[in-house]
Write a structure and sequence with these properties.
Two copies of one chain form a homodimer. With 453 residues, chain A is α+β, with helices and mostly antiparallel strands. Chain A contains 16 helices and 18 strands. In chain A, the strands form four sheets. In chain A, strands 1-5-6-11-10-9-7-8 form an eight-stranded mixed beta sheet. In chain A, strands 13-12-16-17-18 form a five-stranded mixed beta sheet. In chain A, α5 crosses α11, α8 runs antiparallel to α9 and α10 runs antiparallel to α11. The longest helix of chain A has 20 residues. At the A-B interface, α1, β1, β2, β3 and α4 of A face α1, β1, β2, β3 and α4 of B.
Chain lengths: 453, 453
């Protein structure tokens, strides 16, 4: 063994998750799983490493450049940079076993060697759900409902799901004979918020063959806003005369109508005809989700409908729709909105230790409490002298309880046990309550359940 | 877009997890998390990639050779091959923030480029829990209790936790002046089951300076068996006269005694003085866990006490104890014991679709059921014609239900809805029950709850 210590450090852009960060992170993933499952989505996983040919050239030039790619023996391999490309490979490979429609969720780590900066990491988690093998609008509707349930289950009430349909803009561009100009038109439209409509119109006239009327019409479309009903009404005349645009409007109307039927209305749903997302990829419904209190965080859950997921790997045509929950962004937002309690324990109760001969009693109470679903820690560090426990001083044990953030501490020294009671200290207000100690700890369980509910 | 399809395939030794494999896998991980949390263990995570100097030379020569190691820019990096080395680096780096005792669990993927073979993969999950920064026997006791709760929560009743303490054998070797011969003695003892005690004694006499009496004494130790009380009794005279051996025996006795006090007795706990595990690493308590019905699967949960976790990264002395649940091995065993139902859905109920104008009704029922905690899928693939749903033929929808394994299907066509009822088909016996449809679906919820409980 060398005397030289190795400096303990992590790679730039990579993170250790300490308990106070990992506890809410795990809870968020569990909430997502619970909501996905409640709709019948099933989990899958794919390897971290794929043959490079599976991943290269599937995202953007940027993702290729940022890929962790290396030779393993004679194999050219790479770490996945998202969960969508592996999904495409997966359904192409297992199509017959899976059957369609296939509804899957996938929570997994992905890697991108981008320049580390505030809030950007080289290793992060994605949390996707997709319905593959159907063009049914029922899946579009479900996607919006899942997002709504997700946001509420996580604890948000003030959020807005923005809904659009690529067919509307594409149809309006068709109508104006500008279908092949969509990239340039969108590039100009993208600046609407910053430079205003006059300048955007100027740019459109310069960079595309649009006439002044056509540019006005497109601007009119992008500037539509209001309630769901108002936007749908304004969209009517703009879409008239083009089948694609009308179809897009009809799909938006059906999604919004069905969402309304289960209580998702203007409070949390808006039609936003200005959102476009993933220009070349999405072909129908598009969704983004914004926090009303933190709009600058950008979308925390986004997705849309695509025509053919696995075209690079299979002749099987696989249309679908999916969305991705932005875990890291959501956690950052929850932190900022003080939605995450600063806890460092997963347990509800700490049992402090006194006399060594009572350890079996403490273990018995802990066992009863756990059986009743109450997470219980027995103070883990009594000192051993001559093969016997000596408890640490009570103030050290309470320091541990405070530092970790246990809501309750159970005190059962010889005095308490002699009268068949325990004391429960409720840490937030310091009150102590004596509870009779029965053989199955029923009184303690009941008292704690009342406090926790 | 090239016409040439890319062959969808995975790297040798890497796996796709299809839903029927991933559903029980996720459930197993969730069970482990629930049990770990019930004892106050907290989750952490560490990066997949570390500086190579952190990982190299920390396991065996074999782990070094099997490591996925590559250059990322100018950085020499490697993928973690276990969760223990990253834990050592982690606690060395964050010691002050964490405080001790520190109880953590970590479920994560690790990579080893070993030769793929049946049941061996290059990418697999580990599921560890450790208590760091205490020498207290209370943690040894807790480790055994956690394993017991884990096995029961997973669904096993017939298992045996084998308990030993390295101090016993080390003490007995000290007594025989053979302390520096432990590797050779253990190598010989390891063959006890195969070649019998006479041959083992021969080998000991050949390869070590042991006398015939010493060899007999060691063999006597290794061959002790019986109930906990019997083994402890037989250990008495063998440990007499050596402090280390006596201490080991006392620790075994304390762990077994405390376990017995919460009901973990001879049924599921045995003292097995022949187990040694990780010769150079463990220093006290050692545990292994075997399935009584599948002993050849080897240990499914193993661990032990160590003296100084982070000595390569920190001057801080960090003793601890931990164990690791063998996820893949357990899943294989559960498969073989037919403990895993062959389900491909996470939902309890499928609502089939009839008339398009009823979709909002179906969404409403599904929403009610989800709110009551019943996972519900609305058949995702009605056909759209003229912008309106047409339901797929009922037999296609039932084929989907059968293939996925939904326990129940809700049927609500115009006939049913006209009389404010739905029919629930219980798939395992094919019975259909008519239930009144209330505005909050309370009757359906109640009927299903009764069926599921």
């Amino acid at each position: 063994m060398s005397d030289q210590l190795i400096q303990p450090r992590t790679l730039s852009g990579f993170r250790d998750f300490l308990p106070e960060a990992m506890i809410p992170r795990e809870q968020l993933m569990e909430t997502a799983r619970r909501v996905y499952r409640s709709y019948g989505f099933v989990p899958i996983d794919t390897p971290t490493l794929e043959y490079s040919e599976i991943l290269c050239g599937k995202g953007s030039e940027e993702t290729d450049r940022q890929m962790y790619r290396f030779m393993h023996g004679k194999r050219d391999v790479a770490m996945r940079f998202d969960l969508t490309v592996p999904l495409a490979r997966f359904v192409a490979q297992h199509h017959n076993e899976l059957g369609t429609p296939f509804k899957r969720y996938h929570i997994g780590t992905v890697w991108r060697g981008e320049r580390p900066q505030a809030g950007r990491y080289r290793e992060f988690a994605q949390c996707d759900f997709d319905t593959i093998g159907t063009t049914s609008i029922a899946s579009d509707i479900e996607t919006v409902l899942v997002i709504n349930d997700l946001m509420r289950a996580i604890g948000f009430e003030k959020f807005t799901i923005r809904l659009n349909n690529r067919k509307v803009l594409n149809g309006v561009l068709q109508k104006a004979d500008l279908a092949d100009q969509s990239v340039l038109v969108l590039r100009a439209l993208d600046k609407l918020g910053k430079i205003g409509s006059d300048k955007v119109k100027e740019e459109m006239l310069e960079t595309t063959p649009a006439t002044s009327e056509q540019a006005d019409c497109i601007l009119q479309l992008a500037e539509i806003n209001g309630t769901i009903a108002e936007v749908l009404e304004q969209l009517g005349p703009l879409c008239d005369g083009n089948e694609l645009a009308q179809q897009g409007r009809e799909e938006i109307s059906q999604v919004a109508g069905a969402a309304g039927s289960v209580g998702l209305t203007d409070n949390n749903l808006a039609i936003d005809v200005s959102i476009a997302r993933g220009l070349d990829y999405y072909t129908g419904t598009i969704v983004e989700t914004f926090l009303n209190d933190l709009p600058s965080f950008g979308s925390v859950c986004s997705g849309g409908r695509y025509d053919n997921l696995a075209r690079l790997y299979s002749k099987q045509e696989l249309p679908g729709i999916g969305a991705s929950l932005g875990l890291d962004r959501l956690l950052a937002a929850m932190q900022q909105l003080e939605m995450i309690p600063p806890t460092r324990t997963t347990a509800d109760v700490l049992i402090v230790q006194f006399e060594p001969e009572n350890l079996h009693r403490y273990l018995g109470i802990a066992s009863d409490l756990r059986r009743a679903g109450i997470c219980t820690e027995v103070f883990p560090d009594p000192v051993v002298i001559d093969g016997k426990f000596k408890s640490k001083k009570l103030n050290q044990q309470f320091k541990y309880a405070n530092r970790r953030g246990f809501p309750a501490v159970i005190i059962a020294g010889n005095d308490e046990l002699a009268t068949n009671t325990v004391k429960i200290k409720w840490m937030s207000d310091g009150t102590e309550t004596a509870i009779p100690l029965e053989s199955d700890s029923a009184g303690i369980v009941e008292w704690l359940r009342n406090k926790f509910n």
